[in-house]
Amino acid sequence: MVDDILGSTVLKDGTSLHIATLSRRTIVDSNAGHLGFEGYFLFEAIDKPIVKGINILAKVTDLDAAFRLIDIWKKR
Questions:
Q1: Among 4, 14, 17, 60, who pairs with 40 as Cys (CB 3.0-4.6 Å)?
Q2: In the chain, what are the domain boundaries?
Q3: What is the Cα–Cα distance from 22 to 34, expressed in whole angstroms?
């Protein structure tokens, strides 16, 4: 479960990238428990007939880094 989305963008292939806090269960289900459970995560959301779910790509170091990524998305 996504708790608090700070920013999102949609890629050309239809997947979405998000920066958000995630529930402990979502992190465990995504095999990303090694990243820890607190903080903000960069993840893609896939909603296609064959594949649905999220793929956690990275943990953002802090809130400032999360907002910096959002600024970069807006400039693309």
A1: 60
A2: 2-75
A3: 14
